[in-house]
Design brief:
GO molecular function: DNA binding; DNA-binding transcription factor activity, RNA polymerase II-specific
Structural class: mainly alpha
InterPro entries: HD (IPR001356), Homeobox_CS (IPR017970), Homeodomain-like_sf (IPR009057), KN_HD (IPR008422), PBX_PBC_dom (IPR005542), TALE_homeobox (IPR050224)
Strand content: under 5%
Organism: Oryzias latipes (Japanese rice fish)
Protein name: Pre-B-cell leukemia homeobox 2
Number of strands: 0
Pfam families: Homeobox_KN (PF05920), PBC (PF03792)
DNA sequence: GATCATGATTGAGA
DNA sequence: TCTCAATCATGATC
């Protein structure tokens, strides 16, 4: 890709002798002039030709030194004049030699840098969230599944999912647009700089290694901008995710069916409404909620029932009747209408004064259904 | 917007 | 670790 610039005839010095001005590279001027095909005297020997050559060198150096002070048009014209100057190959050779020497010090400065760990983290996160990489909804699906596993699947949860997905897709779209812009800008800028270096290589030696180094610098700069973009994209995803997953912010009532199942169990075990771990798991499965949600529900229910038994009496009677009806139908048919699948300890209207045994005097087995069936 | 209902959280107690 | 009790935060209803 990188074109080797015309550096022929500008090889390194053989290390012998000093140039006219005492500069170690100046002897190249001699060598170049000694091999001039036009057969002219190389000068630098104290003769008139030598004086002329010095004037030429002085002239060309002066022109180079002052070129930046001139207008663009003047500079262009001067550049052309310099390119055609008869001393240009010699000067070029000297510059090559100097560069060869000074270049040694920077050879070890461009070792391959290890990949930025922060960038790796950001990349991984964007990939996991489904923002980077192929669009497959992986991150969205993960977030959705996490949300649904921590809460009940309400009918409008699919609406939330689509909302989350559309917002994530927006973020993804913005991210890719910006990324494309950065990459395009990087490419354009790199091409521009490379062209500039090629142009400059006509008047000064520019090695391919130098061009590579410059390209690497440009890429590093653009990479840091990309890191910022990735960082802000990650933040946006995190905010979206926390909003979507924050159960407290997005509290949803359990489905009617789930509440029915829980109430049924509660009132049919009113004398000891402490479901065992297995019972909780079964209830959770039936209701499509988590075990901890079942525990929360029973905790709240016990407290609120105890606080206001009168208010819950009607509800209690209703569920007791349902349970009794279910039990009777269960005797008539092999299919039990009792959807809880648990045995009932109360086929008659609930009789409870709200004083369940507390932790201070626990029931025989407050976390086991065995006790439920014994009372 | 006020009020009630309800799921979640928190701190204390056993 | 579980439960209770208080409280918070949000949804539902009027």
């Amino acid at each position: 890709m990188l074109q080797q610039q015309p550096l022929t005839g500008n090889g390194p010095s053989n290390g012998r002798g000093l140039g006219v001005s005492g500069h170690p590279g100046m002897h190249s001027l001699n060598s170049v002039h000694q091999h001039r095909s036009d057969g002219a005297e190389p000068g630098l020997d104290g003769t008139e030709n030598g004086h002329e050559t010095r004037r030429d060198i002085g002239d060309i150096l002066q022109q180079i030194m002052t070129i930046t002070d001139q207008s663009l048009d003047e500079a262009q014209a001067k550049k052309h004049a310099l390119n055609c100057h008869r001393m240009k190959p010699a000067l070029f050779s000297v510059l090559c030699e100097i560069k060869e020497k000074t270049g040694l010090s920077m050879r070890n400065t461009q070792e391959e840098e290890p990949q930025d760990p922060q960038l790796v983290r950001l990349d991984n996160m964007l990939l996991a969230e489904g923002v980077a990489g192929p669009e497959k909804g992986g991150g969205a699906a993960a977030a959705v599944s996490a949300a649904t596993s921590s809460g009940g699947m309400s009918p409008d949860s699919s609406l939330e999912h689509s909302d989350y997905k559309s917002k994530l897709s927006q973020i993804r779209s913005i991210y890719h647009t910006e990324l494309e812009k950065y990459e395009q800008a990087c490419t354009e800028f790199t091409t521009h700089v490379m062209n500039l270096l090629r142009e400059q290589s006509r008047t000064r030696p520019v090695t391919p290694r130098e061009i590579e180094r410059m390209v690497a610098i440009i890429h590093r700069k653009f990479s840091s901008i990309q890191t910022q973009l990735k960082q802000s994209t990650c933040e946006a995803v995190m905010i979206l995710r926390s909003r979507f997953l924050d159960a407290r912010r997005k509290r949803r009532n359990f489905s009617k069916q789930a509440t029915e199942v829980l109430n049924e169990y509660f009132y049919s075990h009113l004398s000891n409404p402490y479901p065992s771990e297995e019972a909780k798991e079964e209830l959770a499965k039936q209701c499509g909620i988590t075990v901890s949600q079942v525990s929360n529900w029973f905790g709240n229910k016990r407290i609120r029932y105890k606080k206001n038994i009168g208010k819950f009496q009607e509800e209690a009677n209703l569920y007791a009747m349902k349970t009794a009806l279910g039990a009777r139908q269960g005797e008539d048919s092999p299919h039990t209408p009792n959807s809880t699948g648990f045995t009932s300890d109360s086929s008659s209207p609930p009789q409870h004064n709200g004083n369940w045994p507390g932790r201070s005097s626990p029931p025989p087995s407050p976390h086991s259904d065995r006790s439920d069936n014994s009372d």
